[in-house]
């Protein structure tokens, strides 16, 4: 589902002494099926922006169109918007409340007034999408699961609404490295299997560089840069000036380049860095290629 | 400084339901002035272990001693709590006042410390986290990293010997994480014993010792070089190698003999540059 945002401004505490412009004339569009990541330091406006996309926050001015629906139009029913836009908050497992995993995931679809068979099918589908075995987990209490599993149940609850646009606000915060990877793989697989548009808010430059089609960089309530990862991460000094860094592989390559080694371009993964360094240092992999 | 002997802790859900063991027989000691990192997957017992050190959690079995004081000895509770400070994940849950310096004064005021001494402690604590110039500000106007530094100052004002940091950077952006990491190391250099619980492997590479918890037990422990030289175990424990260690391993597979003691990107780039300089004549030919 496509998104078109024009001149979106949001002012908190309007008219008071501590009035703050959290969003300042933000305009952008996202194509249907695209994977967009939003980065920016704390307080740059990321969370305020995504909360506008399913109508939790109302803009001070500006318009937002999700698919064919202009959600900033007063006549638009928010229920219809929220059916199509799934928002996964930070630490979503704090919102688990039912006695079983099955009931928790079914809560949303039930409220849509769906038939029991359809609800059941959706619960099975969502749990499979988040990588939890239905037979093993459906009747367990969500509270006795591990941190990573709880989070996946919470995300399944959002997926069960079958959103066309899935927004995740730092879905891996507080997870161990293994669960971190599992949740990211899960996001990739949900997108592949459902074709939904994904917006991911993250502080992890490595993740966004490897996953996103495009990155929006926010600073002081504006989108100051947008483009494919290998483009936006070219501007090392600028990113540093707004409190952001490069993916680790790109940072190492940039430091080496400054010290006189040949430019590597923007590297996004440890594998790419290993390949580049092997070539520079004359390791086995390069020799093989040179012979060819 | 801290001695833990065969510590067992079980959470009880309801009256006769299952008993869930969080710690099943942990023994370890932490030396005065050391920097110890505790890592492990979610639910492995890290936080329970941390909370047992300052008596927020009392042993089901076993003993925990802080400078010789038993945490189970109620009359020693203050001795323990005064020596062991804790910093948690979310700074917003740890700040209580509307002005930074009041927040830092909160702990010592409750101890009944003399006002002159409190003023000195505020100065010292805020200097330690490099936030003295922000002393008149409202905490909610600060960045995440700054708020966490104020929370740390509040702990420092209590003059603890040990500070336990329970995932202090989990909710911060990269800039804030670096700020807090730098502060933890500078406090350690000043003599404070640091125990850091984290999910960020990069934060542990400058520790004296790393303890890996799994299923309520210590699964692996040693210096960072020792611990991270077991990649298969690390992965099986739900963790991963620090970035530089992973790259070094990749290079070794390609026949480049990177030394085993490279742990962070700074050491890695230094090594690469030295090696590139050495092999320059060969590259020309």
CATH superfamily of the largest domain in chain A: P-loop containing nucleotide triphosphate hydrolases
Q: Class by helix and strand content of chain A?
A: alpha/beta
CATH architecture heading of the largest domain in chain B: 3-Layer(aba) Sandwich
Helix-strand topology string of chain B: EEEHEEHEHHHEHEEEHHHHH
Rg of chain A, nearest Å: 21 Å
- Overall mean pLDDT of chain A stands at 91
CATH class of the largest domain in chain B: Alpha Beta
End-to-end Cα distance of chain A:
46 Å
Principal-axis shape of chain A: globular
In DSSP terms (H or I, runs of 4 or more residues), the helix count of chain B works out at 11
Order of neighbouring strands in the sheet with most strands of chain A: 6-7-8-3-9-10
The CATH topology annotation of the largest domain in chain B reads as Rossmann fold
Q: What best-fitting shape of chain B do the alpha-carbon axes yield?
A: globular
CATH superfamily descriptor of the largest domain in chain B: P-loop containing nucleotide triphosphate hydrolases
User: How many domains would you count in the coordinates of chain A?
Assistant: 2
Please count the beta strands of chain B (DSSP E, at least 2 residues each): 10
Task: Output the keywords.
heterodimer, A: 292 residues, alpha/beta, Rossmann fold, six-stranded mixed beta sheet, four-stranded antiparallel beta sheet, 13 helices, 10 strands, 21% strand, globular, disordered C terminus, B: 285 residues, 2 domains
Textual characterization of the structure:
Chain A is built from 13 helices and ten strands. Chain A has helices at 46-53, 78-84, 101-111, 116-129, 134-137, 147-159, 177-194, 205-211, 229-232, 236-241, 248-258, 270-281, 284-291, and strands at 3-12, 20-30, 35-39, 61-66, 69-70, 85-88, 165-169, 197-201, 214-219, 222-227. In chain A, a hairpin with a 2-residue loop joins strand 9 (214-219) and strand 10 (222-227). Helix content of chain A is 42%, strand content 21%. Chain A is of the alpha/beta class. Chain A folds into two domains: 3-246, Rossmann fold, CATH 3.40.50.300; 247-292, no CATH class. In chain A, 47% of the residues are buried. Residues 286-292 of chain A have low confidence and may be disordered. By secondary structure, chain B is α/β, with parallel strands linked by helices. Chain B has two domains: 33-59 and 69-234, 3-Layer(aba) Sandwich (Rossmann fold), CATH 3.40.50.300; 242-285, no CATH class. In chain B, 38% of the residues lie in helices and 22% in strands. Chain B is built from eleven helices and ten strands. Chain B has helices at residues 46-53, 77-83, 100-110, 115-128, 144-156, 174-189, 224-227, 231-236, 243-253, 265-278, 280-284, and strands at 2-12, 19-30, 35-39, 61-66, 69-70, 84-87, 162-166, 193-197, 209-214, 217-222. In chain B, the strands form two sheets. Chain B has a six-stranded mixed β-sheet, sandwiched between helices. In chain B, strands 2-1-4-5 form a four-stranded antiparallel β-sheet, covered by helices on one side. In chain B, a hairpin with a 6-residue loop joins strand 1 and strand 2. The longest helix of chain B has 16 residues, at 174-189. The radius of gyration of chain B is 21 Å and the shape is globular. Chain B starts with a strand and ends with a helix. Classes of the chains: A alpha/beta (292), B alpha/beta (285). The interface between A and B is large, with 44 and 43 residues.
